[in-house]
Amino acid sequence: MTEKNYRILVINPGSTSTKVGLFEGETCVFSKNVSHDAQRLAQIGDVSSQLPYRRDMIMGILDENGVDLSTIDAFVGRGGGLLSLEGGVYSVDETLLNDARRGANGVQHPAQLGSQLAHELAASCGKPAFVVNPPDTDELCDDARMTGIRGVYRNVHLHALNLKETAIRHAKTMGRRYEDCDFIVCHIGGGISISAHQHGRMIDGYDIVGGEGPMTPTRAGAVPVVAVLDYLKDHDSAETRRLCQRSGGFADLLGTSDALEVCRRAEEGDEAAARAWSAMEYQIVKYIGSMATVLHGDVDGILLGGGMVHNQGLVAYVRDSCGWIAPVTAYPGEFELEAMAAGAIRALSGEEEVKRYSGKPVFSGFACFE
Q1: Residue 71: domain span
Q2: Is 155 inside any structural domain?
């Protein structure tokens, strides 16, 4: 156990909201999710230009709760906009900030504001700022990177923060270290991540931003390439990209991305809703099975996190389909704020070494195919 109850402020920017939480040790003192007007954000401009607006909102929350920044031991922001990197706790420095500001990974997402906001607040009182297991975490094994096209390689964009925190917490319930376990870990929400964790490394998973993995409420999931080429004859590439990233899946098939509504419609006899829900469940277990083979069947547990895991029918379906592989444990919701605070505490207490962001991707190709 850590001797000191470190005070950690965590910041998690989303598309139309910002979550802020204050932790003392593992205890959440308070958390608040502030909604932003989408039109106002659009008027401000690109993601990084939203920094002053969101910073002022955060300062208002802290003032309301009587929080003195000088009493905070560390600030943690949701990582984003970075080149691929190993998982872990990273100090926020100029190299990391420069890539976050411009969105070096080519994906403009509010998460890239997390490190910038944490840095601004931390710098004002001379405290450290961190990011923990950013979305660009890439620990794929070499075999997982290959495709059959020269110069085209696989990478991953997953809910790495929640996936790793779920695995860390579950390992503790077993009296073991995450680094000594092998898990299949899933985040099942608006996006769905399915990953294989071997001895503390996420050795395989899917690029859910790039169109891999199962169908989700907002993403099309994996689609045959030739079918996509045919689709592009009548649709532009921007529309097709949106289907992969935010307007596919339930949103395209049913006109809503609300999983609760889709489930309700399916239960009330809506044939289209029932077909889409069933297909999503089927694809989830199919991808879980593929991760079991990557781990050679040596699986200590199948862990389910994310908002849709509140649905007992979905959890039962996964247990019925995959329970023969390993015990299935549900962790409904997400641990993102808790995960960021826990990472900072591990760093401050010396339990985990703080890493420095190199600004270079962890993988840039195999020399034998160059």
Answers
A1: 7-133+337-369
A2: no
Place of tokens 């990953």: 195
Q: 204 and 312 share a domain? A: yes
Residue 79 lies in a domain: yes
Is residue 180 domain-shared with residue 317, that is, in the same domain? Answer: yes
Backbone angles phi, psi at 134, to 5 degrees: -65, 165
pTM of the model as a whole: 0.91
- The encoded tokens of residue 13 equal 């920017």
Q: What is the pLDDT of residues 2-38, one digit of tens each?
A: 468 999 999 999 877 889 999 999 899 999 988 877 7
- pLDDT tens-place string over residues 281-338: 999 999 999 999 999 999 999 999 999 999 999 999 999 999 999 999 999 988 889 9
Give per-residue burial for 158-174: e unless 16+ CB within 10 Å, then b: bbbbbbbbbbbbbbeee
Residue 15: which region, alpha, beta or left (left: phi > 0; alpha: psi -120 to 50)? Answer: alpha
SS3 assignment for the chain? CCCCCCEEEEEEECCCEEEEEEEECCEEEEEEEEECCHHHHHHHCCHHHHHHHHHHHHHHHHHHCCCCHHHCCEEEECCCCCCCECCCEEECCHHHHHHHHHCCCCCCCHHHHHHHHHHHHHHCCCCCEEEECCCCECCCCHHHHCCCCCCCCCCCECCHHHHHHHHHHHHHHCCCCHHHCEEEEEEECCCEEEEEEECCEEEECCECCCCCCCCCCCCCCCCCHHHHHHHCCCCCHHHHHHHHHHHCCHHHHHCCCCHHHHHHHHHCCCHHHHHHHHHHHHHHHHHHHHHHHHCCCCCCEEEEEEHHHHCHHHHHHHHHHHCCCCCEEEEEECCHHHHHHHHHHHHHHCCCCCECCCCCCCCCCCHHHC
